[in-house]
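Late entry, evening session. Most of the bench is empty. Finally got around to the prediction I had been postponing all week. Sequence below, unchanged from the version circulated by S.P.
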Amino acid sequence: MIPGNDEFYACPKCNQLHSKATLMSGNTFGAKYYSDARVEYPYLPKFPNITRCNNCREIFRLEKEISSLTYDEQNCDAAYFLDINGYKEAFLKVFYRNIEEELDLRFELLWKWHKMIEEEEMTAEEVYSDFYYLKNIDEIIPAIKDSDLGRILLVAELNRYAGRFEIAAELFAPHLDETEFAIAKESYKRCLNKDRSVYIVNYQAV
């Protein structure tokens, strides 16, 4: 992994400078594939496309890169991914321009919740009791065209996270011998145990 030059963006509301890291090159060694369609690459990190200004708290897109020469880099903040409340605010403000951007944000929010459970920053009960957790899933499902097997299984998995075990099991049942996506059999078992947890589907050792 070779870091690239930082990019700089100014908050459109208060002009506070924010920096975003970049990569010159990376690789997929050590990738972890999760049942919620998340993939984590230790040597190919993701960087945010939107952030919250650390000065005025405005949410803005990181798309109009500027030259840092016109700003004082000593007064520069790092751009971070939104927290859960940030994503909720972004949806309240309809902070997306098309269905692809909406789905990207909704999956980022879903993964944020799941990551917080994994890192013990929130309990599963706290996440599942958040009304917006279910609402977010219910916004994702109809936006996914389940015309191929991968999408059908993803819809089934989302229903499992929502606690709709009978619906999820019914969707998984015809595909228990399927091996390409490697989740049908394991997730079906979890449906029978009323288990909503995310799990690692595949891990590529370095």
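Two things to note before I forget:
The chain has a mean pLDDT of 91.
The first helix runs from residue 84 to 92.
Will write this up properly tomorrow.
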